[in-house]
Design a protein that fits this description.
This protein has about 350 residues and is of the alpha/beta class. It contains 15 helices and 14 strands.
């Protein structure tokens, strides 16, 4: 079996698309020939991320990542995030001449620009430097690949996403305790998710937010008529999905949106802007409405045929997605055996090890 070191700054108990994807990789990968070893913040002392205390950032001492590397002795390193652990893993792969892949999960330039006066071009330059050192960059959708290619990223390979159809399913009876129609959003309650665009809409029925994050208290105060449920998991999460009538996805910065698949599997039509993620999943189907007027999309989605949603969700199978990951690992290792990067190129990609 291939020994794969997966380096990620995002990990349990965080609840987000990156962690959910890595959990599925952990669960299904061993059955597909992957000997996976995760290096995550729980292996190091951590500090809360400024402005986002529920995210813990690893404090790497000199040699601490090297110790993990020697313990695992991987055949390949996969970097899932661009944080301290991801940087250390990238550094180690380049120093050792090991096959290296990265994932582009999060549009950090857009997220950062929403929080601080940092030009997107500066952030993209840093990310291009980070990811272009890899033998392959894994991306989830065609639109993300096209956007990154236009910005000078590459080479790229596809790593799609999936949904657990054994957990998420349409409702068989109506038990929602709120006036219908119920408009639902699930995810982090943070500025980059653009939840204000949803909460400020003039809509009938009830708006429900399921998730937690730094904006929750502020938004709950500003929009007292909305229901804020906090973070839920497992069957409790699935039941809230199936009791809703429309899933509203106001984000303009997500690269995919695993929650869209969970909503569809629950028989829930999606209302969203025509942007990356929703366009890739919902575009050209009758399982939701995409519009620059989110209110029009949300109201129109009420009339969508819920029977159109589940068949669309079935196209996204976790086993197939993890199979894509495995195939990229195999191909990258094989390619690396026949092509060694010039020493001067690797040296230019390194940074002083902290």
């Amino acid at each position: 079996m291939m020994r794969v070191l997966v380096a990620s700054d995002a990990w349990e108990p965080q609840i987000n698309g990156v962690v959910r994807t890595l959990q599925k990789l952990r669960d299904l990968g061993p059955g597909m020939g992957l000997d996976l070893h995760f290096v995550t913040p729980d292996r190091f002392p951590t500090l809360p991320m400024p402005g986002y205390p529920e995210i813990r950032l690893a404090m790497l001492r000199p040699g601490s990542f090297a110790q993990e590397y020697r313990r695992i002795e991987p055949d390949i390193i996969h970097v899932a995030t661009e944080g301290p652990i991801g940087f250390a893993a990238r550094q180690m792969a380049l120093r050792e001449g090991l096959p290296l892949t990265t994932s582009y999960h999060t549009r950090f330039p857009e997220y950062l620009a929403a929080r601080a006066p940092v030009p997107e071009r500066v952030s993209y330059a840093a990310l291009r430097w980070f990811h272009n050192a890899a033998d392959a960059i894994l991306v989830s959708t065609p639109s993300l690949e096209a956007e990154l290619r236009a910005k000078g990223f590459g080479p790229m390979r596809r790593w799609s996403r999936g949904v657990d159809l054994s957990l998420y399913a349409p409702r068989t009876e109506s038990t929602a305790p709120w006036p219908r129609p119920v408009f639902l959003n699930v995810g982090r309650v943070a500025v980059e998710k653009n939840l204000e665009a949803f909460l400020s809409l003039d809509l009938p029925g009830t708006k429900v937010i399921m998730g937690d994050g730094p904006q929750r208290a502020e938004l709950a105060t500003r929009f007292p008529d909305a229901i804020f449920l906090g973070a839920k998991t497992g069957p409790e999460l699935a039941e809230i999905y199936r009791q809703a009538d429309v899933f509203v996805f106001p984000s303009r910065t997500d690269t995919f949106g695993v929650v869209i698949l969970e909503a569809l599997a629950s028989g829930l039509p999606v209302a969203a802007y025509p942007v990356m993620g929703p366009v890739d999943v919902i575009g050209g189907t009758r399982a939701g409405i995409l519009s620059e007027d989110l209110r029009i999309a949300a109201l129109a989605a009420i009339s969508c045929d819920r029977a159109e949603c589940v068949p669309l969700a079935r196209r996204y199978d976790w086993s197939a997605a993890i199979g894509q990951f495995r195939d990229v690992m195999v191909e990258t290792i094989d390619r690396k055996r026949h092509m060694v990067a010039p020493a001067e190129k690797q040296a230019a990609q390194l940074i002083p090890f902290l």
